[in-house]
Amino acid sequence: MNADVFDNWLLKRDCSGLVCNEPLMPMEGAGHVLFPPTYAAGQTDGFPGGYTINRFEKEGKPSVCLIDSVGSQANRLEPVFLEPPYCELVPAVTVKAGEVIKSILEMPHRAGDACVRCSVLHQELHDAFLQTLLGNFTPMAKLAPTSLALGAWDARDTQAKLPRLVGSTIRAYDIRELTRRAQYTTSMSYIDLGLLEKPDDDDKPTKEAYADRGFSQVPAPGYPGGILADGGVERSTTLSLSALRRIHAKGGAMETLKLRRYLLGLSMVVFTLPQDGYLRQGCSLVRDVSKPYEYVEAYGDGRRPELKLTHEEALAYAKMAAKAFGVGPDRHVDFSKTMAEEDIAKAKAKKNGKKGKKDKADADGNGAEEGGETTKKSKKGKAK
Question: What Rg value do the Cα atoms of the chain yield, rounded?
Answer without folding.
Answer: 28
